[in-house]
Design brief:
Helix content: 25-40%
Number of strands: 12
Strand order of the largest sheet: 3-2-1-4-5-12
Largest sheet: 6 strands, parallel
Order of helices and strands: EHEEHEHEEHEEEHEHEEH
Number of helices: 7
Radius of gyration: 19 Å
Distance between the termini: 14 Å
Shape: elongated
Structural class: alpha/beta
């Protein structure tokens, strides 16, 4: 059996670990990484880095490498590859599963402001605060580049490239993060508004709790749509169960 995981997330690495341990001898688990992070954490099994050349290129890869199942475990905001995966799987007649961690849900005391895009998030900021903790990653910073009156603390794994805000300090770090650490970061930099994507998961959730404690508004960018009608799993263990059901008997 050959399983292709479109990865780059914590869940994708965990799924690769489960599959390498659980699949029959002679099986192949290949994780595909986009290559946007300079030093990614590599999962067990085979690893490929780079794009496929769109949906047609991915379909050709599925056929030529005799893939039995495709699991899209990319970031919830990697919308293009998700739709390409759906088209490729249909063209190559390969079962597809979307592995998506559940989104965050506001709780008592949260002051959340939903936004449909990074541009909408940028438009909302001047009315909410002056010192921004920006945790949307290094891609898409151009949306905030014109906000010269605001100061930004931008956190990402790798250094950003312009255009980005003129008044910005960059913090290179990788989760998981702790509540104590997020609380100290917010207080030290006098942050008064947080911007995040609804990535879900526990690794970066402490910033939301810290913002709640400090009474800070949070601009939450909603997830992009996903293909309708596909199989969806909320975690690696559920994905393994789906794969077992697909090929049992």
């Amino acid at each position: 059996m050959h399983v292709l995981i479109l990865g780059g997330t914590t869940e994708a690495r965990r799924l690769a670990e489960l599959l390498v341990a659980a699949l029959p001898a002679g099986s192949t688990v290949t994780s595909s990484l986009a290559g946007r992070v300079a030093r990614p954490k590599l999962p067990p099994g085979e690893v490929r880095v780079g794009g496929f050349g769109g949906a047609d290129g991915l379909a050709d890869w599925l056929r030529s490498h005799r893939v039995h199942a495709l699991i899209d475990a990319t970031h919830p905001f990697a919308g293009t590859i998700t739709f390409n995966a759906a088209r490729a799987a249909a063209a190559a007649h390969v079962p597809l599963l979307m592995l998506r961690r559940p989104g965050w849900v506001p709780g008592d005391g949260d002051d959340w402001h939903p936004a449909g895009s990074l541009a909408e998030a940028a438009d909302a900021l001047p009315a909410l605060g002056r010192r921004v903790f920006l945790t949307t990653g290094r891609m898409g910073l151009a949306a905030f580049a014109g906000l010269d009156d605001l100061w930004f603390l931008m956190r990402s794994v790798d250094a950003p490239e312009p255009p980005y805000p003129a008044r910005m300090e960059t913090l290179l770090d990788r989760g998981p993060f702790t509540l104590e650490g997020e609380r100290e970061l917010i207080r030290r930099h006098r942050i008064d508004v947080l911007v995040t994507k609804d990535s879900g998961g526990a690794a970066t959730a402490p910033k939301l709790a810290a913002a709640r404690e400090e009474g800070i508004p949070v601009v939450v960018v909603r997830r992009p749509p996903v293909p309708e009608g596909g199989a969806v799993a909320g975690g690696p263990e559920e994905a393994l169960a789906w794969l077992t059901d697909q090929f049992s008997g």
